[in-house]
Amino acid sequence: MERIDGKALAAKVKAQVAAEVEALRGQGVVPKLTVILVGEDPASQVYVGGKAKDCAQCGIDSEVLRLPDSTTEAQLLAEIAVRNSDPTVSGLLVQLPLPRHINEKKVIEAISPEKDVDGFTPVNVGRLVIGEDCFLPCTPAGCIELLKATGEPLEGKRAVVLGRSNIVGKPMALLLLRENATVTVCHSRTRDLPSVVREADILVAAIGKKRFVTPDMVKEGALVVDVGINRGEDGKLYGDVDEPGLADKAGRITPVPGGVGLMTRAMLMVNTLKAAKRQHGLD
Ligand SMILES: Nc1nc(=O)c2c([nH]1)NC[C@@H]1CN(c3ccc(C(=O)N[C@@H](CCC(=O)O)C(=O)O)cc3)C=[N+]21
Fold it and tell me: How far is the CA of 6 from the centre of ligand 1 (A)?
């Protein structure tokens, strides 16, 4: 299988964002992303650092609000409310997962839909379902860009999404549908899952299990998008797909690392730019 270069595509997307941000600055508009991080989750620390770096590359101001693990839900909601009504904040994101004593649903619902650059609020999810303009969730949006970058038409293809989470599987299915693919969503209760996966011209693996997709499950010539980020005992990152096992197959695959994760971050920059433009009536 040939690799789809997520690093190159992310760089291209960020360069386009940077050019637009520069033009916006000329009009006196400076986009800003605020990330709220509660607690000390080590993976979250890494992701948040990556986002700050991307912002710097794009000329987007960034601010990280670090709150202790002991933060109450009410305190977090109050911090969100301050950013919702701060006109200098274009995009607002609360890093997940949150400590167990905080209700994730309540927190997401508190974010202003006009600043919801993750595309996680019910308003944006609803807009996505009915095909209105909205903030697309970054990971699925990045997956679509990776698929489009292959130059292969998505229309009419059989797409299989492995996983049905609110942040990846479900919105991914909707975005593929919007591209006129024929979409099947598989999950832990799917009967004879391997035979369903084998039908896929386009396979999006977002099940969160290291190398769950074995070579016998992948159709010859398929486009495979690997959303998995599983840390192995050896400290290395593994996707949901056994990529080395697919070496002799025709088709294309996004690597882990170097694929979907980088595009997730690039799409966050796209959304933050879009938020700033909309808030200034420029979109
Ligand atoms: N509100 C919220 N929004 C998110 O978008 C969000 C979140 N919470 N919580 C956690 C997940 C995970 N996530 C990733 C982002 C970038 C990489 C990434 O850049 N990965 C690199 C390498 C990373 C490494 O080496 O550790 C790559 O795949 O090449 C991975 C994962 C965003 N998430």
Answer: 13
- Claim to verify: residue 84 and residue 175 sit in the same structural domain: no
Tell me the pLDDT tens digit for each residue of 138-171. Answer: 999 999 999 999 999 999 999 999 999 999 999 9
Residue 239 CA to ligand 1 centre (angstroms) = 13
Residues 249 and 166 in one domain: yes
Burial class (CB in 10 A: 0-12, 13-18, 19+), 186: buried
Alpha-carbon gap, residue 88 to 111, rounded angstroms:
15
Distance of CA 66 to the CA centre of its chain: 22
Neighbours of 156 (CB within 10 A): 10
Percent of all residues in the chain with a pLDDT value above 90, rounded to a whole number: 98
Q: pTM to 2 decimals?
A: 0.97
Domain that holds residue 109: 27-113
Kindly state whether residues 222 and 180 are assigned to the same domain. Answer: yes
The ligand 1 atom at the shortest distance from the C-alpha of residue 93 is 1
Active site residue 51: yes
CATH of the domain at 217: 3.40.50.720
Of 54, 118, 226, 240, which is the active-site residue? 118
Whether the ω angle into residue 97 lies within 30 degrees of 0, i.e. cis, is yes
210 part of the active site: no
Q: Are residues 143 and 102 in the same domain?
A: no
Same domain, 158 and 255: yes
Does 268 fall in a domain?
no
Instruction: For ligand 1, pick from 108, 138, 229 the residue to mutate: most ligand atoms within 8 Å of CB.
Output: 229
Give, using CA atoms, the residue closest to atom 30 of ligand 1.
261
Dist. CA 218–CA 271, nearest whole Å: 33
Query: Residues comprising the binding site for NADP(+)?
Result: 163-165, 229
